[in-house]
Write a structure and sequence with these properties.
Blueprint lengths: L18 E4 L5 E4 L1 H6 L21 H9 L6 E9 L5 E11 L8 E8 L41 H33 L6 H26 L6 E4 H8 L8 E5 L4 E5 L3 H15 L6 E8 L2 E8 L24 H11 L3 E4 L8 E7 L3 E3 L16
Parallel strand pairs: 7-9
Antiparallel strand pairs: 1-2, 1-5, 3-4, 4-5, 6-8, 8-13, 9-10, 10-12, 11-12
Helix pairs in contact: 3-4, 5-6, 6-7
Length: 382
């Protein structure tokens, strides 16, 4: 196979599912760390290996045949056993699609994997023992061998939605890369032409699509993973790391507050800081504080900018509202609502914006350390 550009699979690192890319011969072109780790390998250790060699020998040929028969329009869902590096086996659901880097290159097979819950992992006889060929799970009755289930059992809706999103995200990113490639070719061919302004517009639209894909990727994670205990001050510090130094003050935010929030909770503060930077016009100071209220805890984020007009205090949280993307405050509200939090703008127009985050009782505590050690996250989680 011809060499694949080095940066082609950079997006794999951010995909929250085990994922592998096979070339036309079944060799592993790329695998993210989640896939390698799932099978007990170091990241990068599987490069160039036979991808089908990771499937239990009894059904290896059938799985290879099914994956290779896919066309550009189709997909495939399998349930099969894979081999770990230590020789043990794990039952996985996999979802396959075909992708092309460009028209001149052979197609690649993209596989996304979901580990079956422990209670759904049937006991598999040792290789070579009676019944060892039944790799699709269920009772071992000595019937015909089945490597996979073309129509596997019901999958959790959130998990299936995440899988579908990841496939679409990947394919769209590939097409955007192709679009930009053709735009570059046109730019070279039309050097000095008045048509170059149209190519600039095409690239601008491509950049907007890519930005929206990034936002969609964030939305796909909202509520996917169970809420976690997070230290509010630590969250704010991390979120403020990209802001100009010396303008964010946390004097009224003690370090003892922990809240049970969605893992995307830090993004709320990032978006509030970005909102102040873009729309505050003259913001020099942002103050974050916390105080007890009758219904729970209120965390305030207050700036000294131009403020929010009275008739826009609710509209700013609507999808699409604003002079730029219109996503930031909408996403912030959605992330907060997953954990049962709410947000309001309560500042005085002309004197600055103030966002109050309301956290109900039972969702926060005052403690010097985390209330409990978070459970290990297995993505995707119900």
């Amino acid at each position: 196979m011809r060499e694949v550009p080095e940066d082609t699979f950079g997006f794999l690192a951010g995909i929250p599912l085990p994922m592998v890319v096979l070339d036309a011969e079944g060799a592993i072109v790329n695998a993210n760390s989640r896939f390698s780790g799932l099978l007990g390998y170091l990241h990068g250790e599987l490069g160039g290996a036979d991808g089908f060699g990771l499937v239990d020998p009894v059904d290896r040929d059938l799985v290879r045949s099914l994956v290779r028969q896919m066309n550009d329009e189709g997909g495939l869902a399998l349930t099969a056993w894979l081999l770990r590096k230590d020789g043990s086996r794990v039952r996985l659901q996999s979802f396959w699609s075909v992708s092309r880097i460009d028209a001149s290159r052979p197609p690649l097979s993209i596989g996304l994997f979901v580990e079956m819950p422990a209670e759904d992992q049937p006991v598999l006889p040792a290789a070579g023992s009676p019944g060892a060929s039944l790799l699709s799970g269920g009772p071992r009755d000595g019937g015909p061998a089945r490597a996979c289930d073309p129509a596997p059992g019901p999958t959790d809706p959130g998990r299936r939605s995440q899988i579908i999103h990841t496939i679409i995200f990947h394919d769209t990113k590939n097409r955007l890369a192709a679009l930009r490639g053709y735009a570059d070719l046109l730019r070279e061919s039309l050097s000095g032409s008045s048509f170059l302004s149209y190519i600039d517009k095409l690239e601008e639209i491509a950049a907007e699509i890519e930005r929206d894909l990034g936002v969609a990727s964030m939305f796909s994670h909202v509520g996917l993973i169970a809420p976690q205990w997070q230290n509010v001050r630590d969250v704010v510090v991390r979120s403020a790391s990209r802001e100009p130094g010396g303008r964010i003050f946390m004097d009224d935010l003690p370090g003892s507050i922990w809240c049970l929030a969605d893992p995307l909770f830090p993004r709320v503060f990032s978006n509030l800081f970005e909102n102040a930077r873009r729309h505050g016009e003259k913001v020099t100071t942002i103050r974050i504080g916390a105080k007890e209220a009758p219904g729970g805890l209120v965390i305030s984020v207050e700036d000294d900018g131009v403020g929010i007009p009275a008739d826009q205090k609710e509209r700013i949280f609507e999808h699409g509202f604003g002079r730029h993307t219109g996503y930031g405050l909408y996403l912030a509200r959605e992330v907060l609502s997953i954990a049962g939090f709410s947000i309001q703008e309560t500042g005085d127009p002309g004197k600055g914006a103030r966002f109050d985050i309301h956290i109900p009782r039972g969702r926060y505590v005052h403690r010097p350390s985390c209330p409990e050690e978070p459970d290990p996250i297995r993505i995707p989680a119900a």
